[in-house]
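re: that chain from earlier
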Amino acid sequence: MSFLAVPTLALGALAMASSPAIAHDGEDHSYSSTLGQLNGTTGSGTITVDVKGDQATVNLQVSGLAETFMDAPYPHVQHIHGGALGECPIPADDENGDGILNTSDGTRAYGGILTTLTTSGATGPEEGLNLELGGQGGSYTIQRTFDLNAETKASLEAGTAVVVVHGLDPATAGVSEEVFNSTSDISPDLPLGATSPALCGTLVASQMGDMPAGGADTGVAQETGSNTGALALGGGLVLAAAAGGTFLVRRSNAAKA
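^ sequence. v structure.
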């Protein structure tokens, strides 16, 4: 099984049930966030979410994340979480003290997945680990309009909606190769570092169409094929597909470009 062909996986308590689109109430709202760094990430990102009735228009711009595999961009999944404190996790939330704030560690702060910010197609929680629909590469833009479910709308209005972008660079994560490549807390087929949060920010009310200050350099989210097996991250970092869809990231002695 190739990295980009990993099937959609159940996220258990991290994913909250989707619901029908909300009724059009004639009200327009806008929310935005400048995303902060987690787990040694050196990247940045901004997002706006403009809500018009039952429709949400998202403009997510990300740069500086782990960039490339041998023949394909690094896939990053991102979500709107909610139903909790409306905050991003802090180092003290690292429950097992392994040096990585994994996705589960952050649940207390940001809650379960309400919407998956995919590049196309469905946006429900069930798409949470659909790598084919994730952002591709270290710099990308996702701009799309889709039906907004009631849980996400309620969390936005309550100020508890949090955007999380996943996928760490082993060169900057600050943990050993063994820890980075240990089994993910949300998928037995992926390494911990590949599913852990890299960027995070609470969505707050803003003027319609405004982009937060400090916007990221942008690229274009690209769909990639599903036949890539062994993939190399820039600077000799390798994410290799093993039998059964298990993936390993190795750190290189060469300095990252």
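Residues 150-158 form the longest helix (9 residues).
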